[in-house]
Specification:
809 residues; alpha+beta; Immunoglobulin-like; Rossmann fold; seven-stranded mixed β-sheet; 15 helices; 33% strand
Length: 809
């Protein structure tokens, strides 16, 4: 092996050392960091054990490729009554010299019914067709190969979409336009329209090589924290409420509001709002009178008729009529929660726990890669126990992966006191890919606990947050800014402590209703109108009555159908109804996959022209535009949501959070960093001879935990669970120099403080171990974080590791 080639191999190994240890690269070429990936773009793509987690964007040296083809995204919103119609325009332009395929992952409302798409190239506009997902993908791929411009819109999650645009030639500008509609339901008299702008990075420990194509979207490039949105963002809202507007405000962006008359207003972004594409756009408004009247909307179609029925529930019952309750707080302390989200979580938990009644009990479970429980059984809400909970959460800094599912399984399996109503509160940004499994788990627990979700962050995963609320018969709460925490905590307390309406039923007298969604109305725990969608046959006449029990009294309210006029402006109701039916069928199908049910889902989406899990929109130009040459595929990098740090992107195996650029005030370079730099300089002398480690070599290398001894505050199981998450990162510290034999064992001794940090460590080896290997291990160990212990004592850990190698370098 040539000297240059040897240096190249050591450079790659050194870079892997840096990944395992969380080392900061100070200068030299730009590298990216992602779970299970190498640090050079070419070599990283060869790794066989990459996970689906996202990675940091690396700007290529190839100036002929435009790596930021999305130039702008703009949105027009028209709200009439309780229905919003939204048009999203994306502009792609190729400013490079090579033809491109652009791939862009973006969010939408969880309630969005996407019913149309267009693609415009110059003067030509192509209306997209709705097709079965596989057929749409095949048609797109064929058009791409034939050199035709084409666009494909797929649903990856109910609130995550992916746009592919093929054959964008140098100098081209291609516009895609999609349209969706959704219902806006007020809570306590406040209407809220939310337009999500960016998909937050989703943690996943699933190996890329074994993952289906439908899950590949989560492996997406991200910019570093603080980097501006690489495309312009604009939004304009036109509101026609039909009732005088009392007040209106945008809580997320600087806006200009123009009141056209008492019930109409126009909202646009202020000129000073330059970088708004990294946080949800949130518009709130109240109508005059602070009351919500019961309402009925009708639409008579050519073949089918649809209705939307909204009824305002009664006021709340008094707290003294509410039985004692048990609260389980599940709090996300993973890397993506570092900073503002975790700080808000701490204040929120202190507020919620501190406000419990003496008759209530509670428990706290913290989770990241592992989980930590305050107590094995729920504790009385005394001042002493409350102080314990507050102290536990205050020690958290945020780090590691986001293993939500095991944490929920543990929390929901806790013993429950007899005769007490249990409420589970989940606090997270929702950056996970296990939404389906979480929903299924909650469904299996219905009747045993009410489940609520607090989403904290500027762009939370609303599919998870709102889905938890839907399947748990609860209400979603989202805190997008620190100052919102006190008010939202107060709303939550008011919400869960005073139920409004239970045992709800609907009566249709003389009104021939059918295909009603939802089939049953869950208990109403807030002053939020109940919305029912359905079809009707015959003449619009008869009465709709809602009945239930509030406190100890019966409740009833009736609407006369004949007094309501059918209007063509209500045509969006058909999409809302179909979207609701599709969501319900999808929920059941997630519980138990069924080919017949999938067929019904697909047929329903095709009939009503809706994007779904099984249908996609595809638009194909008839003109062949690329007649020769290859096509570069570019994944549009996304900004990290406002308030989310680089720690949101997990490290190797999901256990270490890695950064690819130096912080504002970097510490002096470590010995491992100096080694990395010197290797880079030596390698630069012989680039022509560079080569990567063989995959066969890599496959035989690994780290195995041989023995573990734990004494002190933490349990052995807690330490073992955390260590197993870190072992994947240590494989990059494997023996590689002469004298290191296969199966070499090392003994690590370290002390964990009560707040979960490594205080001191020692590395012992019976044989000859390379200096750089020990440095790599030392860098990694210093960055390990373990669960905090409930006591004040330290934990002493001794672990024996076996390092296997596939040969000498």
């Amino acid at each position: 092996m040539s000297r240059a080639s040897g240096f190249s191999r050591r450079l790659i190994t050194a870079l892997l050392f840096a990944a395992a240890a969380g080392i900061v690269q100070e200068d030299g070429p730009a590298w990216f960091a992602g779970p299970g990936t190498a640090f050079g773009a070419g070599y990283g793509e060869q790794q066989a054990d990459k996970t689906l987690s996202p990675y940091f964007f690396v700007k290529s040296d190839d100036s002929s490729v435009d790596q930021l083809p999305l130039k702008s995204t703009s949105t027009e919103v028209n709200i009439a009554g309780v229905i919003a119609d939204v048009k999203v325009v994306q502009v792609y332009r190729n400013e490079g010299k090579k033809p491109l395929e652009a791939v862009y992952v973006f969010p939408a409302s969880t309630r969005a019914a996407v019913y149309g798409m267009k693609m415009t190239i110059g003067e030509r506009t192509i209306t997209a067709e709705i097709r079965k997902r596989e057929e749409a993908r095949q048609a797109y791929e064929q058009a791409k190969q034939e050199g035709k411009s084409a666009s494909l819109l797929e649903q990856q999650r109910p609130n995550v979409f992916q746009m592919n645009v093929a054959n964008i030639l140098p100098g081209d500008e291609i516009r895609t336009e999609l349209q969706y509609t959704e219902a806006i339901v007020p809570l306590d008299g406040v209407y809220e329209f939310v337009y999500p702008t960016v998909v937050g990075p989703r943690y996943s420990n699933q190996k890329e090589e074994n993952a289906p194509a439908s899950e590949q979207w989560s492996r997406n490039p991200y910019l570093h924290q603080g980097e501006p949105t690489p495309y312009s963002f604009g939004i304009a809202v036109d509101l026609a409420s039909g009732v005088p507007i009392r007040e209106m405000a945008c809580t997320s962006h600087q806006v200009e509001i123009e009141y056209r008359d008492a019930s109409r207003a126009a909202v646009t972004l202020a000129a000073s709002e330059k970088t708004g594409g990294n946080k949800d756009f949130i518009l709130k408004y109240r109508l005059a009178g602070d009351t919500i009247d019961s309402g009925l909307l009708l639409y008579e179609g050519k073949d089918e008729n649809f209705f939307l029925f909204m009824v305002q529930p009664p006021g709340r019952v008094t707290p003294e009529n509410i039985p004692p309750r048990d609260y389980i707080f599940i709090v996300d302390v993973s890397g993506s929660m570092h900073g503002f989200p975790l700080d808000v979580s701490k204040r929120l938990l202190k507020d919620l726990v501190g406000s419990l009644r003496p008759t209530d009990t509670f428990n706290v479970l913290l989770f990241s890669g592992a989980s930590q429980l305050l107590a094995e059984r729920s504790l009385p809400a005394t001042s002493e126990n409350t102080a314990r909970a507050v102290e536990l959460i205050e020690r958290q800094q945020g780090g590691g992966g986001t293993e939500l599912l095991p944490a929920m399984e543990r929390a929901l399996g806790l013993p429950r006191p007899e005769g007490i109503s249990r409420t589970v509160v989940i606090v997270t940004d929702g950056y996970v890919t296990v939404e389906t499994e979480v929903f299924d788990l909650i469904r299996r627990q219905l009747g045993k606990a009410n489940v609520f979700a607090f989403g904290i962050g500027s762009s939370v995963n609303r599919h998870l947050i709102e889905g938890i609320a839907r399947v748990g018969a609860g209400e979603p709460f989202v805190i997008s800014k620190p100052e919102e925490a006190p008010a939202r905590a107060a709303e939550f307390r008011k919400y869960v402590q005073s139920p409004v309406l239970t045992q709800i039923g609907l009566d249709f007298s003389g009104f021939d209703a059918c295909d009603v969604e939802p089939a049953g109305v869950p208990d109403v725990l807030a002053e939020r109108p109940a919305i029912v969608l359905g079809k009707w046959r015959g003449q619009p006449r008869g009465k709709i009555t809602v009945r239930g029990i509030t406190g100890v009294q019966k409740y009833s309210r009736t609407v006369d159908v004949a007094s309501v006029k059918s209007m063509d402006a209500n045509s969006a109701i058909r999409y809302l109804w179909a979207r609701s039916r599709i969501a319900q069928l999808s929920d059941y199908n997630m519980l138990k996959p069924n080919d017949e049910r999938i067929g019904k889902l697909t047929d329903l989406a095709l009939k009503y022209n809706l994007l779904s899990r099984y249908t996609s929109f595809v638009a194909i130009d008839t003109m062949v535009r690329r007649k020769e040459g290859g096509l570069e595929t570019v994944k549009q990098p996304l900004p990290l949501p406002e308030g989310v740090s680089d720690l949101a992107l997990p490290g190797a195996g999901g256990a270490l959070a890695m950064r690819a650029t130096a912080p504002m005030s970097a510490p002096p370079p470590s010995s491992a960093q100096r080694y990395l730099k010197s290797e880079a300089r030596e390698s630069a002398k012989g680039k022509s001879s560079q080569e990567s480690p063989s995959m066969s070599d890599k496959a035989t290398r690994g780290v195995r935990l041989e023995k573990l001894t734990v004494t002190g505050g933490l349990s052995e199981s807690a330490v073992r669970q955390a260590l197993e998450g870190y072992l994947e990162g240590l494989r990059n510290c494997r023996p590689k120099t002469s004298g290191a034999s296969a199966g070499e064992k090392l003994t690590l001794k370290f002390t964990i403080t009560s707040d979960g940090k490594v205080k001191s460590h020692e590395i012992l080896s019976p044989g000859k171990t390379a200096k750089e290997m020990k440095e790599c291990l030392a860098e990694a160990i210093r960055r390990w974080v373990f669960p905090a212990s409930t006591g004040t004592g330290e934990t002493i850990v001794t672990v024996i590791l076996s390092f296997e190698t596939g040969g000498k370098s």
